[in-house]
Amino acid sequence: MEKIDYRDEGRFCSGHVACAGCAEAISMRVILNAVGEDTVGVIVPSCTAVILGGYPMSSTKTSFIHGTLESAGAFASGVKRALRAQGRDDTTVLCLAGDGGTYDIGLQSLSSAAERNEDILYICFDNEGYMNTGGQKSSSTPHKAATGSTPLGKPTRKKNMIEILAAHRIPYIATTSPSHLSDMAAKVKKAKSIRGTKVIFVLIPCLPGWGVAENAAVKTARLGVEAGVFPLIEVEGGVKYSLTVDQKTRRIDDYLGEQKRYNHLSDEDRRELQEEVDDTWARLLARAEAGE
What we know:
Blueprint: H1 23-35, E1 39-43, H2 47-52, E2 63-66, H3 72-85, E3 92-98, H4 100-104, H5 107-116, E4 121-126, H6 161-166, E5 172-176, H7 181-192, E6 198-203, H8 207-210, H9 217-226, E7 233-236, E8 240-243, H10 252-256, H11 267-290
Parallel strand pairs: 1-2, 1-3, 3-4, 4-6, 5-6
Antiparallel strand pairs: 5-7, 7-8
Helix pairs in contact: 1-7, 3-5
């Protein structure tokens, strides 16, 4: 059993309105603790914005600016430049967005910020759908997963944002999971120490959207890591790949079985998804072993 090396600094407060058992609240606590006090945050419409609360209420001691869904990267860029003009170049600008505001509606402003290599730390809480508006599919929704707008299963694969951002050659990209909190804190602290655009993706099993039990969010996230569905990786400079967890110890059935969004799958569907995961894992492993 992994010991979690963590001491809370009180940046995230009780009394928030996340769903009972939501892994995003756990992740926010660790992330806000890791970035520290000298931080200004940007938040866009998402579950995260609801959890943090609307003005003048807030569930965090960190100052946040609420932006528009399509403009997370632009808002964060502007805040960083304003701080720099004030002589506060060391203040961390933390941007929190969901997959809708990252993979879809906000991709243009994030890509522009990455192209300019703006000095921001961008966190995507990836619950693989528009879970705050009824559970519709996003381009982050995995292949064959049922959603409010794809009740028979999504016919296309999940957009590969890691490789899209790697093509921008930004300094740092990583994936993290609420099942590996020490890894999450370490990656956030590492990203904070790097100048330029840093993007971290956090897997957030959505309890109602995925059909996961209230006490099973962290378990589901761990199964996703162990099955290789959500590999924990780092990409530095867009070319150097490394795997935080370098072994795939489960088949995907354990992961799929925790979620109602995959109840409709046939045995052939499951075999196809397993082949997709195996292929992606093999390519990641080869890149990590090659150091590129």
